[in-house]
Amino acid sequence: MKILLSTTVHGDERHAHQVGSEVQKLIKKEGNSNIDLLVAHDKAYKLNKRFLETDLNRSFGVEIPLSFEEKLAVKIRNKLERDDYDLVLDMHNTKASGTTCAIVVNKPSRFQFAVLDAFSLKRIVQMPPSGSLLSALPKYEKGISIEIAEDDVVNYPASKLAEIIAKISRELNIEDQITKPSETAKPSYYQYAATIQNTTLRRLGLKKSQFANFKKLTATQIQKLGVDVSSDDKTPSLYTIFLGGGHMGKTAMNLVRGFNIS
Questions:
Q1: Which whole number is the average pLDDT over 126-155?
Q2: Which of 47, 153, 195, 219 has a Cα-to-Cα distance from 12 of 20 to 30 A?
Q3: Which residues contact 228 (CB under 8 A, 6 or more apart)?
Q4: In sequence order, what DSSP letters do the residues of 42-69 get, joined into one string?
């Protein structure tokens, strides 16, 4: 399987870059030609900054590229369209506590569940494309972002993740079909529902300190938010994610809806 591993889409995510370095060591040691490494934003990494002008992970698909990142995104998109990888792994780490998960921009496919299972991740979140690197893929089902929370790095050291990626390249086939996640992973599936700005929270008399990542909202919180409750879903399973991570985590919070996987 031909894999592209992308790191440093955000330049301040140091653990993601370490994973790339460990993969590079394995490539040399094993002579593995099935993995390509993309250091997406080397300039931001060297400055230890998330981005220089605009968030690279929101800069794909812009009609008129103007910022440094938007022009960089065009080059990366061209590579993705030209090389047609079987799997694009976009490696990230976040300061948001307890948010280790996989992210996709499509309804998760059986192949993506197989990748999730290889990493033994417990959660998969479907987010809107929103100008992300994954949105630049000709086929969304070939991409998956791996988010490792900084408080969870001890459980996912760079060397371990590199070995998993190398194993995927050797053993996983694009045709792999699984009817449901294995018993080892037992992932929970979430789908983006809304983004709530800090100003809206204040107007509603709510504080971020009342919420926690991947903790189900109470009926009272849902009521205060004014979420519509339909007759067939009287208590929506809503959760917050990425509180305290990146620019978005400081100015707003995302809501996702939880689903059972059958």
A1: 96
A2: 195
A3: none
A4: HHHHHHT-S-SSS-GGG-TT-SS--SHH
pLDDT of res. 187: 81
Q: What pTM, to 2 d.p., does this model score? A: 0.90
Enumerate residues 6+ apart whose C-beta is below 8 A from 117: 178, 181, 182, 184, 185
DSSP 166-230: HHHHHH--TT---SS--TTT--EEEEEEEEEEHHHHHHTT--GGG--BTPBPPHHHHHHHT----
Tokens of 62: 């812009």
CA angle (34 as vertex; 28, 40 as ends), nearest 5: 80
> Who contacts 166 (Cβ-Cβ below 8 Å, separation ≥6)?
23, 26, 30, 32, 35
Residues 6+ apart with CB under 8 A from 27: 33, 35, 37
User: Euclidean distance between the first and final Cα of the chain, in Å?
Assistant: 28
Tokens for 33, please give them. Answer: 């030609």
Q: Residue 143 forms beta bridges with which residues?
A: 88
Distance CA 128, CA 126 (A): 7
- For the chain, the maximum distance between any two Cα atoms, rounded to a whole number of angstroms, is 59
- Computed over its alpha carbons, how large is the radius of gyration of the chain? 19
Q: What whole-number distance in Å separates Cα of residue 108 and Cα of residue 85? A: 18
